[in-house]
Amino acid sequence: MRLVYLGPPGTFTEVAAGRAPGTAGAERVPVASVDAALNAVREGEADFAVVPIENSVEGGVTSTLDALGAGRPLSIRAEVLVPVTFVLAARPGTALADVRRVGSHPHALAQCRGWVAEHLPAALAVPALSTAAAAQVLGGAAGEAPYDAALCAEPAALAAGLEVLARDVADNAGAVTRFVVVGRPAAPPPPTGSDKTTVVASLAEDRSGALLELLEQFATRGINLTRIESRPQGTELGRYTFSIDCEGHVADPRVSEALMGLHRVCPRVRYLGSYPRADGLAPVPPPGTADADFTAARAWLADLLSGRPAT
Ligand SMILES: O=C(O)C(=O)Cc1ccccc1
């Protein structure tokens, strides 16, 4: 079994890959970008990809959301939560006052924006493909590097031969990043009672109430959303698709009814998978929306249709 992840070694994604459920014993191969990881799975060069999808401070990882929403379909099999802390690291001999450009993954730059603004007010933020890639580029560059310091995990800094200038430089202690394990389309694993379902849906037309209609499919079935993000369709200003995570599993009656509702009201729905929640939390449906309520309602309807006396 081959698993690719956003590398190089030392990324937070590597930590997530090491904890990915159902991948014990897999050969773990770093790749340069989220697109490269997902395409390796599409092409059959890897069985699974582990990629970041969401952060508790910065929200969705747009490169992942866009890559999952377009191109050949993929399927999310599991999620992994990893706490993230950053150091600011530089080549030996660099002082904090020498740092004019800071390189890292855009989510790391965003999560340390306040610290950098306070301690390095004149520094430029330079995006890199990952935190460990920023450390590697800085440590490996013979002469001029594209930045003077990198924001990364401490082991990545040390592996690249850098020195730590400051620890715990994130603005929010306790930030958590969510990663997903992605494979080629397959039947979902059985429901566990603590699951999430991910879909991408677009609106029928640009009119008032269209988004409300989409959301109603979940609300009327008592389904809580754990993430919703709009992403531009890229065709014209004002056209968006919605990337949504909801509580529950496609095999749960209330979730299956909500997805069928989406299929009725949205021109395009991409089902990306149902998988166990990493936090183990179970949904608390409002009265009348438990799966047993939906099952009982279907049985009642079956009675009506068969002519059996129904109450
Ligand atoms: O670059 C990394 O180390 C990643 O794994 C992506 C990332 C970047 C910032 C916060 C969490 C994950």
From TrEMBL:
GO terms of molecular function: prephenate dehydratase activity
User: TM segments?
Assistant: none
Q: Which reaction does it catalyse?
A: prephenate + H(+) = 3-phenylpyruvate + CO2 + H2O
Quote the InterPro entries the UniProt record gives. ACT-like_dom_sf (IPR045865), ACT_dom (IPR002912), Chor_mutase/pphenate_deHydtase (IPR008242), Preph_deHydtase (IPR001086), Preph_deHydtase_CS (IPR018528)
GO BP: any one term = L-phenylalanine biosynthetic process
- Report domain ACT positions: 199-276
EC assignment: 4.2.1.51
Top-level taxon of origin? Bacteria
A cellular component annotation (GO) from this entry: cytoplasm
Gene3D superfamilies per the UniProt record, alphabetical = 3.30.70.260, Periplasmic binding protein-like II
Q: Which residues form the Prephenate dehydratase domain?
A: 2-184
* Site location (Essential for prephenate dehydratase activity): 177
Metabolic or biological pathway, per its Swiss-Prot or TrEMBL entry: Amino-acid biosynthesis; L-phenylalanine biosynthesis; phenylpyruvate from prephenate: step 1/1
Question: Which keywords does this Swiss-Prot/TrEMBL entry list?
Answer: Amino-acid biosynthesis, Aromatic amino acid biosynthesis, Lyase, Phenylalanine biosynthesis
Protein name as it appears in the record:
Prephenate dehydratase
Q: Which organism is the protein's source?
A: Quadrisphaera setariae
Q: What is the lineage of its organism?
A: Bacteria, Bacillati, Actinomycetota, Actinomycetes, Kineosporiales
